Amino acid sequence: MMKLRGLRIKGLKGRWMFTGTGVTVLIVLLGVWLIVASIHTNYYHSVETGLESKATTASEFLEDYVTGSYTEFYRSAMDYTEGFEDRDRIELQFLSSGGRVETSSYGFSAGTRPGTPDITEALSTGEMSSWSGRRDDTGEHVLAVSAPLKNASGTVIGLIRYVTSLRLVDEQVFRLAAATAGVGLLIIMFIILSNLYFINSITAPIVELTGIARRISDGSYGIQAVKLHDDEIGDLIDSINDMSVKLGRAEKMQTEFISSISHELRTPLTAITGWSETLAFDPAIKGESLRGITIISKEAARLTKMVEDLLEFTRIEDGRFNLTLEKIDVAAELEEAIFTYGELLRQEGMELHYDPDYTELPQITADPERLRQVFLNILDNAAKYGREGRRIDVRIWRSGEYVKISVRDYGPGIPEQELPYVKRKFYKGSSKERGSGIGLAVCDEIVTRHKGALDIENAPDGGVIVTVSLPAGSEVLSN
After folding, report:
1. For residue 148, what is the DSSP state?
2. pTM above 0.90?
3. What confidence tens digit (pLDDT) does each residue in 452-468 have?
4. Across residues 263-291, what is the average pLDDT?
5. Who's near 61: CB < 8 A, 6+ residues apart?
6. SS3 string of 181-243?
7. Using CA atoms, how far apart are residues 379 and 466, in angstroms rounded to an integer?
Protein backbone atom coordinates (compact mmCIF):
# COMPACT_ATOMS: atom_id res chain seq x y z
CA MET A 1 0.00 0.00 0.00
CA MET A 2 1.39 3.42 -0.97
CA LYS A 3 0.61 6.55 1.06
CA LEU A 4 0.91 9.98 -0.61
CA ARG A 5 -0.03 13.00 1.53
CA GLY A 6 -2.87 11.20 3.25
CA LEU A 7 -4.05 9.45 0.04
CA ARG A 8 -3.95 5.67 0.31
CA ILE A 9 -3.62 3.70 -2.91
CA LYS A 10 -4.11 -0.02 -2.46
CA GLY A 11 -3.19 -2.72 -4.92
CA LEU A 12 -1.02 -3.03 -7.99
CA LYS A 13 -3.76 -1.72 -10.29
CA GLY A 14 -4.30 1.41 -8.17
CA ARG A 15 -0.58 2.18 -7.99
CA TRP A 16 -0.14 1.63 -11.73
CA MET A 17 -3.11 3.84 -12.66
CA PHE A 18 -1.99 6.57 -10.25
CA THR A 19 1.71 6.64 -11.07
CA GLY A 20 2.00 5.43 -14.67
CA THR A 21 -1.32 6.44 -16.21
CA GLY A 22 -1.70 9.51 -13.99
CA VAL A 23 1.63 10.99 -15.10
CA THR A 24 0.86 10.26 -18.76
CA VAL A 25 -2.57 11.91 -18.47
CA LEU A 26 -0.99 14.97 -16.86
CA ILE A 27 1.50 15.19 -19.76
CA VAL A 28 -1.35 14.97 -22.29
CA LEU A 29 -3.32 17.66 -20.42
CA LEU A 30 -0.25 19.87 -20.35
CA GLY A 31 0.23 19.31 -24.10
CA VAL A 32 -3.42 20.23 -24.78
CA TRP A 33 -3.07 23.37 -22.67
CA LEU A 34 0.12 24.40 -24.53
CA ILE A 35 -1.52 23.82 -27.93
CA VAL A 36 -4.61 25.82 -26.95
CA ALA A 37 -2.42 28.60 -25.55
CA SER A 38 -0.37 28.59 -28.77
CA ILE A 39 -3.52 28.79 -30.92
CA HIS A 40 -4.82 31.64 -28.80
CA THR A 41 -1.54 33.55 -28.94
CA ASN A 42 -0.99 33.02 -32.68
CA TYR A 43 -4.49 34.07 -33.71
CA TYR A 44 -4.61 37.20 -31.59
CA HIS A 45 -1.01 38.08 -32.41
CA SER A 46 -1.78 37.72 -36.11
CA VAL A 47 -4.72 40.15 -35.85
CA GLU A 48 -2.64 42.54 -33.76
CA THR A 49 0.26 42.40 -36.21
CA GLY A 50 -2.09 43.14 -39.12
CA LEU A 51 -3.54 46.20 -37.38
CA GLU A 52 -0.09 47.41 -36.36
CA SER A 53 1.06 47.10 -39.98
CA LYS A 54 -1.91 49.15 -41.18
CA ALA A 55 -1.36 51.74 -38.46
CA THR A 56 2.35 52.06 -39.29
CA THR A 57 1.69 52.50 -43.00
CA ALA A 58 -1.11 55.01 -42.45
CA SER A 59 0.78 57.08 -39.86
CA GLU A 60 3.89 57.30 -42.08
CA PHE A 61 1.72 58.33 -45.02
CA LEU A 62 -0.25 60.99 -43.13
CA GLU A 63 2.75 62.53 -41.38
CA ASP A 64 4.00 63.70 -44.78
CA TYR A 65 0.84 65.84 -45.17
CA VAL A 66 0.23 66.93 -41.59
CA THR A 67 1.46 70.41 -40.59
CA GLY A 68 1.24 72.05 -37.22
CA SER A 69 -2.34 73.28 -37.61
CA TYR A 70 -5.25 71.38 -36.14
CA THR A 71 -7.45 72.39 -39.11
CA GLU A 72 -5.19 70.65 -41.58
CA PHE A 73 -5.00 67.56 -39.32
CA TYR A 74 -8.76 67.41 -39.15
CA ARG A 75 -9.16 67.82 -42.93
CA SER A 76 -6.59 65.11 -43.64
CA ALA A 77 -8.30 62.78 -41.18
CA MET A 78 -11.68 63.30 -42.82
CA ASP A 79 -10.29 62.68 -46.29
CA TYR A 80 -8.48 59.49 -45.22
CA THR A 81 -11.55 58.21 -43.37
CA GLU A 82 -13.81 58.74 -46.37
CA GLY A 83 -11.48 56.68 -48.56
CA PHE A 84 -10.98 53.83 -46.01
CA GLU A 85 -11.80 50.56 -47.78
CA ASP A 86 -11.92 48.12 -44.85
CA ARG A 87 -14.73 49.89 -43.00
CA ASP A 88 -16.91 46.75 -43.15
CA ARG A 89 -14.59 44.85 -40.72
CA ILE A 90 -12.35 47.52 -39.15
CA GLU A 91 -13.26 50.83 -37.56
CA LEU A 92 -10.82 53.69 -38.32
CA GLN A 93 -10.63 56.50 -35.80
CA PHE A 94 -8.66 59.76 -35.62
CA LEU A 95 -8.19 61.19 -32.14
CA SER A 96 -6.96 64.58 -31.03
CA SER A 97 -4.01 65.03 -28.70
CA GLY A 98 -6.54 65.24 -25.89
CA GLY A 99 -7.88 61.74 -26.58
CA ARG A 100 -11.11 62.83 -28.24
CA VAL A 101 -12.41 60.93 -31.34
CA GLU A 102 -12.54 63.54 -34.09
CA THR A 103 -13.72 61.27 -36.87
CA SER A 104 -14.62 57.61 -37.27
CA SER A 105 -15.40 55.32 -40.19
CA TYR A 106 -18.43 54.11 -38.19
CA GLY A 107 -19.56 57.63 -37.37
CA PHE A 108 -21.16 57.02 -33.98
CA SER A 109 -17.81 57.06 -32.16
CA ALA A 110 -17.03 60.68 -33.11
CA GLY A 111 -16.96 63.02 -30.17
CA THR A 112 -16.37 60.26 -27.57
CA ARG A 113 -13.34 59.75 -25.36
CA PRO A 114 -12.65 55.97 -25.13
CA GLY A 115 -9.81 56.45 -22.61
CA THR A 116 -8.43 52.95 -23.21
CA PRO A 117 -4.82 52.07 -22.25
CA ASP A 118 -3.60 52.06 -25.88
CA ILE A 119 -4.71 55.70 -26.32
CA THR A 120 -3.18 56.84 -23.04
CA GLU A 121 0.12 55.09 -23.69
CA ALA A 122 0.43 56.25 -27.32
CA LEU A 123 -0.19 59.88 -26.33
CA SER A 124 2.20 59.78 -23.37
CA THR A 125 5.09 57.86 -25.01
CA GLY A 126 4.68 58.80 -28.67
CA GLU A 127 4.91 55.09 -29.55
CA MET A 128 2.40 52.70 -31.09
CA SER A 129 0.32 50.80 -28.49
CA SER A 130 -2.30 48.07 -28.57
CA TRP A 131 -5.13 46.93 -26.28
CA SER A 132 -7.82 44.24 -26.24
CA GLY A 133 -10.91 44.21 -24.07
CA ARG A 134 -14.60 45.09 -23.93
CA ARG A 135 -15.95 48.33 -25.43
CA ASP A 136 -17.80 50.48 -22.95
CA ASP A 137 -20.53 51.39 -25.43
CA THR A 138 -21.35 47.95 -26.89
CA GLY A 139 -19.61 45.47 -24.58
CA GLU A 140 -18.08 43.80 -27.65
CA HIS A 141 -14.66 42.13 -27.41
CA VAL A 142 -12.32 44.21 -29.58
CA LEU A 143 -8.64 44.76 -30.37
CA ALA A 144 -7.40 48.33 -30.84
CA VAL A 145 -4.08 49.67 -32.10
CA SER A 146 -3.22 53.34 -31.67
CA ALA A 147 -0.36 55.02 -33.59
CA PRO A 148 0.73 58.64 -32.89
CA LEU A 149 0.73 61.30 -35.65
CA LYS A 150 3.56 63.84 -35.30
CA ASN A 151 4.28 67.15 -37.00
CA ALA A 152 7.59 68.20 -38.39
CA SER A 153 8.86 69.17 -34.94
CA GLY A 154 8.06 65.72 -33.53
CA THR A 155 5.08 66.84 -31.43
CA VAL A 156 2.15 64.41 -31.21
CA ILE A 157 -0.83 66.22 -32.67
CA GLY A 158 -3.19 63.24 -32.76
CA LEU A 159 -3.67 59.49 -33.11
CA ILE A 160 -4.76 57.14 -35.85
CA ARG A 161 -6.57 54.17 -34.25
CA TYR A 162 -7.77 50.90 -35.74
CA VAL A 163 -10.46 48.93 -33.86
CA THR A 164 -11.63 45.47 -34.96
CA SER A 165 -14.10 43.00 -33.45
CA LEU A 166 -12.66 39.74 -32.11
CA ARG A 167 -15.93 37.85 -32.24
CA LEU A 168 -15.00 35.73 -35.26
CA VAL A 169 -11.49 35.20 -33.91
CA ASP A 170 -12.93 34.17 -30.53
CA GLU A 171 -15.24 31.69 -32.24
CA GLN A 172 -12.41 30.24 -34.34
CA VAL A 173 -10.10 29.96 -31.34
CA PHE A 174 -12.89 28.31 -29.32
CA ARG A 175 -13.58 25.77 -32.09
CA LEU A 176 -9.91 24.89 -32.44
CA ALA A 177 -9.49 24.72 -28.64
CA ALA A 178 -12.56 22.47 -28.38
CA ALA A 179 -11.24 20.23 -31.18
CA THR A 180 -7.84 20.04 -29.48
CA ALA A 181 -9.45 19.26 -26.13
CA GLY A 182 -11.58 16.57 -27.80
CA VAL A 183 -8.53 14.96 -29.35
CA GLY A 184 -6.76 15.18 -25.98
CA LEU A 185 -9.75 13.55 -24.29
CA LEU A 186 -9.74 10.72 -26.84
CA ILE A 187 -6.01 10.23 -26.25
CA ILE A 188 -6.56 10.16 -22.47
CA MET A 189 -9.40 7.64 -22.84
CA PHE A 190 -7.21 5.49 -25.08
CA ILE A 191 -4.34 5.67 -22.58
CA ILE A 192 -6.62 4.77 -19.65
CA LEU A 193 -8.33 1.90 -21.50
CA SER A 194 -5.07 0.50 -22.87
CA ASN A 195 -3.45 0.74 -19.45
CA LEU A 196 -6.46 -0.92 -17.81
CA TYR A 197 -6.29 -3.73 -20.36
CA PHE A 198 -2.56 -4.09 -19.77
CA ILE A 199 -2.72 -4.05 -15.97
CA ASN A 200 -5.74 -6.40 -15.98
CA SER A 201 -3.72 -8.84 -18.07
CA ILE A 202 -1.22 -8.82 -15.20
CA THR A 203 -3.49 -8.61 -12.15
CA ALA A 204 -6.09 -11.16 -13.30
CA PRO A 205 -3.59 -14.06 -13.35
CA ILE A 206 -2.10 -12.81 -10.07
CA VAL A 207 -5.55 -12.78 -8.42
CA GLU A 208 -6.16 -16.32 -9.72
CA LEU A 209 -2.75 -17.40 -8.45
CA THR A 210 -3.52 -15.84 -5.06
CA GLY A 211 -6.68 -17.96 -4.85
CA ILE A 212 -4.75 -21.07 -5.90
CA ALA A 213 -2.04 -20.33 -3.32
CA ARG A 214 -4.69 -19.89 -0.59
CA ARG A 215 -6.27 -23.22 -1.52
CA ILE A 216 -2.87 -24.90 -1.46
CA SER A 217 -2.12 -23.36 1.95
CA ASP A 218 -5.49 -24.70 3.15
CA GLY A 219 -4.47 -28.22 2.11
CA SER A 220 -5.77 -28.57 -1.44
CA TYR A 221 -2.49 -29.96 -2.71
CA GLY A 222 -2.17 -30.97 -6.35
CA ILE A 223 -4.54 -28.35 -7.85
CA GLN A 224 -3.25 -26.61 -10.97
CA ALA A 225 -3.51 -23.06 -12.30
CA VAL A 226 -4.12 -22.53 -16.03
CA LYS A 227 -1.14 -21.10 -17.92
CA LEU A 228 -2.25 -18.67 -20.64
CA HIS A 229 0.97 -16.92 -21.67
CA ASP A 230 4.61 -17.91 -21.93
CA ASP A 231 5.98 -14.96 -19.96
CA GLU A 232 7.14 -14.13 -16.42
CA ILE A 233 3.66 -14.80 -15.01
CA GLY A 234 3.60 -18.06 -16.96
CA ASP A 235 6.89 -19.03 -15.31
CA LEU A 236 5.38 -18.18 -11.91
CA ILE A 237 2.34 -20.37 -12.69
CA ASP A 238 4.67 -23.24 -13.66
CA SER A 239 6.53 -22.90 -10.36
CA ILE A 240 3.33 -22.86 -8.30
CA ASN A 241 1.89 -25.82 -10.21
CA ASP A 242 5.11 -27.74 -9.67
CA MET A 243 5.05 -26.86 -5.97
CA SER A 244 1.42 -27.97 -5.74
CA VAL A 245 2.20 -31.33 -7.35
CA LYS A 246 5.17 -31.93 -5.07
CA LEU A 247 3.14 -30.97 -1.99
CA GLY A 248 0.41 -33.34 -3.12
CA ARG A 249 2.89 -36.16 -3.45
CA ALA A 250 4.42 -35.34 -0.08
CA GLU A 251 0.94 -35.22 1.48
CA LYS A 252 0.06 -38.59 -0.03
CA MET A 253 3.30 -40.12 1.20
CA GLN A 254 2.70 -38.64 4.65
CA THR A 255 -0.83 -40.00 4.79
CA GLU A 256 0.29 -43.45 3.64
CA PHE A 257 3.11 -43.42 6.18
CA ILE A 258 0.78 -42.37 9.02
CA SER A 259 -1.75 -45.03 8.02
CA SER A 260 0.94 -47.73 7.86
CA ILE A 261 2.52 -46.78 11.19
CA SER A 262 -0.86 -46.46 12.89
CA HIS A 263 -1.88 -49.96 11.79
CA GLU A 264 1.49 -51.34 12.89
CA LEU A 265 1.10 -49.72 16.32
CA ARG A 266 -2.38 -51.08 17.00
CA THR A 267 -1.23 -54.71 17.54
CA PRO A 268 1.46 -54.02 20.16
CA LEU A 269 -0.73 -51.40 21.85
CA THR A 270 -3.57 -53.90 22.15
CA ALA A 271 -1.18 -56.35 23.80
CA ILE A 272 0.25 -53.70 26.15
CA THR A 273 -3.20 -52.52 27.16
CA GLY A 274 -4.53 -56.02 27.68
CA TRP A 275 -1.58 -57.26 29.76
CA SER A 276 -1.39 -54.07 31.82
CA GLU A 277 -5.07 -54.40 32.75
CA THR A 278 -4.53 -58.10 33.57
CA LEU A 279 -1.50 -57.37 35.74
CA ALA A 280 -3.34 -54.56 37.53
CA PHE A 281 -5.76 -57.16 38.96
CA ASP A 282 -2.98 -59.53 40.06
CA PRO A 283 -2.98 -59.48 43.91
CA ALA A 284 0.74 -60.26 43.94
CA ILE A 285 1.55 -56.91 42.36
CA LYS A 286 1.46 -54.12 44.91
CA GLY A 287 3.00 -50.77 45.76
CA GLU A 288 5.30 -49.20 43.23
CA SER A 289 4.85 -52.09 40.82
CA LEU A 290 1.07 -51.55 40.77
CA ARG A 291 1.59 -47.86 40.32
CA GLY A 292 3.91 -48.54 37.37
CA ILE A 293 1.39 -50.91 35.81
CA THR A 294 -1.32 -48.21 36.17
CA ILE A 295 0.91 -45.66 34.42
CA ILE A 296 1.61 -48.15 31.62
CA SER A 297 -2.13 -48.73 31.18
CA LYS A 298 -2.90 -45.01 31.19
CA GLU A 299 -0.16 -44.11 28.71
CA ALA A 300 -1.12 -47.03 26.47
CA ALA A 301 -4.70 -45.76 26.45
CA ARG A 302 -3.47 -42.25 25.54
CA LEU A 303 -1.31 -43.64 22.76
CA THR A 304 -4.20 -45.76 21.51
CA LYS A 305 -6.37 -42.63 21.26
CA MET A 306 -3.64 -40.88 19.26
CA VAL A 307 -3.42 -43.88 16.93
CA GLU A 308 -7.20 -43.87 16.46
CA ASP A 309 -7.10 -40.13 15.67
CA LEU A 310 -4.36 -40.74 13.12
CA LEU A 311 -6.33 -43.54 11.50
CA GLU A 312 -9.41 -41.33 11.43
CA PHE A 313 -7.32 -38.63 9.78
CA THR A 314 -6.07 -41.00 7.08
CA ARG A 315 -9.63 -42.13 6.38
CA ILE A 316 -10.63 -38.48 5.84
CA GLU A 317 -7.64 -37.86 3.58
CA ASP A 318 -8.26 -41.03 1.54
CA GLY A 319 -11.98 -40.36 1.16
CA ARG A 320 -12.91 -43.43 3.20
CA PHE A 321 -14.62 -41.37 5.89
CA ASN A 322 -18.37 -41.99 5.95
CA LEU A 323 -21.28 -41.15 8.23
CA THR A 324 -24.02 -43.55 9.33
CA LEU A 325 -26.93 -41.18 9.79
CA GLU A 326 -30.00 -41.79 11.92
CA LYS A 327 -32.44 -39.89 14.11
CA ILE A 328 -30.81 -39.45 17.53
CA ASP A 329 -31.34 -37.77 20.86
CA VAL A 330 -28.26 -35.52 20.84
CA ALA A 331 -28.64 -34.70 24.55
CA ALA A 332 -28.49 -38.42 25.41
CA GLU A 333 -25.33 -38.83 23.33
CA LEU A 334 -23.74 -35.82 25.05
CA GLU A 335 -24.68 -37.12 28.50
CA GLU A 336 -23.20 -40.52 27.68
CA ALA A 337 -19.93 -38.86 26.69
CA ILE A 338 -19.97 -36.84 29.93
CA PHE A 339 -20.58 -40.00 31.96
CA THR A 340 -17.79 -41.82 30.10
CA TYR A 341 -15.35 -38.98 30.74
CA GLY A 342 -16.58 -38.08 34.22
CA GLU A 343 -14.41 -40.58 36.12
CA LEU A 344 -11.26 -39.37 34.36
CA LEU A 345 -12.12 -35.75 35.24
CA ARG A 346 -12.61 -36.69 38.88
CA GLN A 347 -9.22 -38.38 38.89
CA GLU A 348 -7.75 -35.16 37.51
CA GLY A 349 -9.42 -33.23 40.34
CA MET A 350 -11.69 -31.24 37.97
CA GLU A 351 -15.37 -30.35 38.36
CA LEU A 352 -17.80 -30.73 35.47
CA HIS A 353 -21.00 -28.64 35.46
CA TYR A 354 -23.66 -29.74 33.02
CA ASP A 355 -26.45 -27.26 32.22
CA PRO A 356 -28.97 -28.76 29.77
CA ASP A 357 -31.90 -26.78 28.34
CA TYR A 358 -34.40 -29.35 27.09
CA THR A 359 -36.94 -26.73 25.95
CA GLU A 360 -37.95 -27.64 22.38
CA LEU A 361 -34.80 -29.68 22.03
CA PRO A 362 -35.32 -31.69 18.82
CA GLN A 363 -34.04 -34.92 17.46
CA ILE A 364 -31.33 -34.48 14.88
CA THR A 365 -30.09 -36.57 11.98
CA ALA A 366 -26.52 -37.57 12.78
CA ASP A 367 -23.99 -40.33 13.26
CA PRO A 368 -24.07 -41.03 17.03
CA GLU A 369 -20.63 -42.64 17.24
CA ARG A 370 -18.99 -39.78 15.36
CA LEU A 371 -20.70 -37.19 17.58
CA ARG A 372 -19.57 -39.03 20.73
CA GLN A 373 -16.08 -38.95 19.26
CA VAL A 374 -16.40 -35.15 18.87
CA PHE A 375 -17.75 -34.67 22.43
CA LEU A 376 -15.04 -36.85 23.98
CA ASN A 377 -12.30 -35.10 22.07
CA ILE A 378 -13.52 -31.65 23.09
CA LEU A 379 -13.86 -32.73 26.73
CA ASP A 380 -10.36 -34.22 26.58
CA ASN A 381 -8.93 -30.95 25.25
CA ALA A 382 -10.78 -28.97 27.94
CA ALA A 383 -9.32 -31.20 30.63
CA LYS A 384 -5.83 -31.10 29.12
CA TYR A 385 -5.50 -27.39 28.31
CA GLY A 386 -7.76 -26.00 31.05
CA ARG A 387 -6.35 -28.16 33.84
CA GLU A 388 -5.34 -25.22 36.02
CA GLY A 389 -8.91 -23.86 36.01
CA ARG A 390 -10.19 -27.07 37.69
CA ARG A 391 -13.61 -26.66 36.10
CA ILE A 392 -15.47 -27.44 32.87
CA ASP A 393 -18.94 -26.13 31.97
CA VAL A 394 -21.08 -27.99 29.43
CA ARG A 395 -24.33 -26.64 27.96
CA ILE A 396 -26.86 -27.79 25.35
CA TRP A 397 -29.73 -25.67 24.02
CA ARG A 398 -31.87 -24.89 20.98
CA SER A 399 -30.93 -21.75 19.02
CA GLY A 400 -33.13 -21.12 15.98
CA GLU A 401 -32.46 -23.81 13.38
CA TYR A 402 -29.56 -25.31 15.34
CA VAL A 403 -28.87 -27.37 18.42
CA LYS A 404 -25.80 -25.96 20.14
CA ILE A 405 -23.40 -27.66 22.55
CA SER A 406 -20.73 -25.60 24.29
CA VAL A 407 -17.78 -26.79 26.38
CA ARG A 408 -15.96 -24.13 28.34
CA ASP A 409 -12.77 -24.46 30.40
CA TYR A 410 -11.15 -21.97 32.75
CA GLY A 411 -7.55 -22.37 31.64
CA PRO A 412 -5.19 -19.76 30.18
CA GLY A 413 -6.97 -19.61 26.82
CA ILE A 414 -5.45 -19.57 23.34
CA PRO A 415 -3.21 -16.74 22.07
CA GLU A 416 -5.28 -14.58 19.72
CA GLN A 417 -2.82 -14.99 16.85
CA GLU A 418 -3.20 -18.79 17.06
CA LEU A 419 -7.01 -18.96 17.10
CA PRO A 420 -7.44 -19.00 13.29
CA TYR A 421 -5.18 -22.06 13.00
CA VAL A 422 -6.18 -24.34 15.90
CA LYS A 423 -8.43 -26.48 13.67
CA ARG A 424 -5.68 -27.15 11.15
CA LYS A 425 -4.22 -30.63 11.12
CA PHE A 426 -1.00 -31.09 13.09
CA TYR A 427 -1.14 -27.52 14.40
CA LYS A 428 -0.22 -27.29 18.08
CA GLY A 429 0.79 -23.65 18.44
CA SER A 430 2.75 -22.62 21.51
CA SER A 431 1.17 -25.25 23.76
CA LYS A 432 3.57 -27.66 25.44
CA GLU A 433 0.88 -30.29 26.01
CA ARG A 434 1.44 -33.61 24.34
CA GLY A 435 -0.80 -34.63 21.45
CA SER A 436 -0.97 -35.31 17.72
CA GLY A 437 -2.50 -31.98 16.77
CA ILE A 438 -5.20 -33.54 14.61
CA GLY A 439 -8.01 -34.09 17.12
CA LEU A 440 -9.74 -30.77 16.41
CA ALA A 441 -9.16 -31.18 12.67
CA VAL A 442 -11.03 -34.51 12.80
CA CYS A 443 -13.79 -32.98 14.94
CA ASP A 444 -14.17 -30.08 12.53
CA GLU A 445 -14.45 -32.49 9.60
CA ILE A 446 -17.11 -34.56 11.39
CA VAL A 447 -19.18 -31.50 12.34
CA THR A 448 -18.82 -30.00 8.85
CA ARG A 449 -20.08 -33.24 7.27
CA HIS A 450 -23.12 -32.92 9.53
CA LYS A 451 -23.66 -29.47 7.90
CA GLY A 452 -22.80 -27.85 11.21
CA ALA A 453 -20.04 -25.61 12.53
CA LEU A 454 -17.30 -25.92 15.13
CA ASP A 455 -16.37 -22.54 16.66
CA ILE A 456 -13.50 -21.93 19.07
CA GLU A 457 -13.04 -18.65 20.93
CA ASN A 458 -11.59 -17.25 24.12
CA ALA A 459 -14.02 -16.50 26.93
CA PRO A 460 -14.11 -12.84 28.06
CA ASP A 461 -12.98 -13.69 31.62
CA GLY A 462 -10.51 -16.45 30.74
CA GLY A 463 -10.55 -19.93 29.28
CA VAL A 464 -11.77 -21.30 25.97
CA ILE A 465 -15.32 -21.90 24.69
CA VAL A 466 -15.83 -24.56 22.03
CA THR A 467 -19.29 -24.48 20.44
CA VAL A 468 -20.72 -27.20 18.20
CA SER A 469 -23.73 -26.14 16.10
CA LEU A 470 -25.79 -28.93 14.50
CA PRO A 471 -28.84 -28.51 12.24
CA ALA A 472 -32.06 -29.16 14.20
CA GLY A 473 -34.62 -31.67 13.03
CA SER A 474 -38.39 -31.20 12.99
CA GLU A 475 -39.27 -33.68 15.77
CA VAL A 476 -39.20 -32.19 19.28
CA LEU A 477 -38.32 -34.42 22.20
CA SER A 478 -40.44 -34.40 25.36
CA ASN A 479 -38.27 -34.40 28.49
Report:
1. E
2. no
3. 999 999 988 888 999 99
4. 79
5. none
6. HHHHHHHHHHHHHHHHHHHHHHHHHHHHHHHHHHHHHCCCCCCCCCCCCCCHHHHHHHHHHHH
7. 10
